[in-house]
Amino acid sequence: MAVRQSRTRSRWSARAAAVVAAAALLAAIPQVAVGEPVPPAPAPPAPAPAVPDRKPGAAPAFGAYLDYGPRGVARMAQLSHWLGGAELRVGHTYLPGDLWSNIEGAPGFLDVWADWRTREADRMFVLNVPMMERNEEGVDDDEVRELLRQGAAGRFDHHFRALAERLVELNVPDTVLVLGWEMNGTTYTHRCGPDPEAWKTYWNRIVTTMRSVPGQKFRFDFTPSRGRDAIPWTRCYPGDATVDIIGMDSYDQPRGMAFDEQVKEPYGLQAHVDFAKAHGKPISYPEWGLFRNGDNAEYMRRMLAWMDEHKPMYNTLTDYCPHGVWQCDDNPRSTAVYRSVLFGRTDEPDTTAPEPVTPTAPTAPPVPAVPPTAPRPSADCSPLELGDWVEYWLGGKLCMRLDWYSRNK
């Protein structure tokens, strides 16, 4: 669990909020009230899709969280350029958890990610999916407990069926779904602590519902935060039948904790690897990065080495301040380590042993010039605000000359 003020999933721009608020009214469906019959349980889930084999000796697939929408997609090419053409195979974003209509995948939000995913066969799209609306609004434990029990009884099935149908329609049926992430903490309404048994039943119901949609090949990633947090994350594990990947969000925290302690602590990095091995599941790190210990080059070096050793299916760095390196100028030593380790990395097997990186004086390759994403407007040209979606497809902003009226008189 990292900075929540800057890492809030449920806040879009004002433009997007206005659109989806109207959509929410149309998406509303009568809910199950006390005393009404609950929806029948979905049919047993289809077998989980097989996890594709990694090339022998290949480096783990990686990427970074760079922004929610089109800017996040555009920045992936720039980050790859900064890393000397390194192959960023993983795109990662989050569904807003404010309204059910957004959790269903509001029109226009997922399209740009689906377009990125389908351009290359070996790319991976990772999508964090809230299990509840009002997911970051401080809902108290009593209400969370009641909501979990309603979810376990089937009240919210139709929202997740709609999301599954939307992803299949967009031709991304193999999306990795990080469902109910960091459930062992206290931040989210979809937390496990108030009723672990109801939470597990609800998770199983969501997975079963989404796997019942024709054409799906989803993989479900169970991802707690590192350590015990509010409840041991093992108490929330819903079972091997509905989990395909066992992930962990692992930031450099709490203050003063060395990396060796992060490995050895109860429910820490080693416990995560051991638990996944015991259950025959691959691991992942959907969120990781710097945090309480500042520009900690030792953490960066050790975390990258840990992932190279344990070969997660994928990892995505949270790349903005205080966690990141490319979009954050506050962490120059860690930035140098990250860039030196990943510079030019591809999915091909590495036959040479990597040179150790000294965290106090890392040497990074020369920084290539990053081409601007769009030409700068002239001084007498006023940029037009057309929104992320339009600007992504246009390749930049449009502007209007301020002297148009006088030149046409």
From TrEMBL:
SUPFAM superfamilies, per the entry: (Trans)glycosidases
Protein name: Glycosyl hydrolase
Residue ranges with Pro residues bias: 356-375
Coiled-coil boundaries: none
Domain GH26 residue range list: 39-347
InterPro entries, alphabetized: GH, GH26_dom
UniProt GO MF annotations: hydrolase activity
Residues at the active site: 182 (proton donor), 287 (nucleophile)
Family: Belongs to the glycosyl hydrolase 26 family.
Membrane spanning residue stretches: none
Family annotation (PROSITE patterns): GH26
Region (Disordered): 345-380
Signal peptide start-end: 1-33
Entry keyword set: Glycosidase, Hydrolase, Signal
One Pfam entry name: Glyco_hydro_26
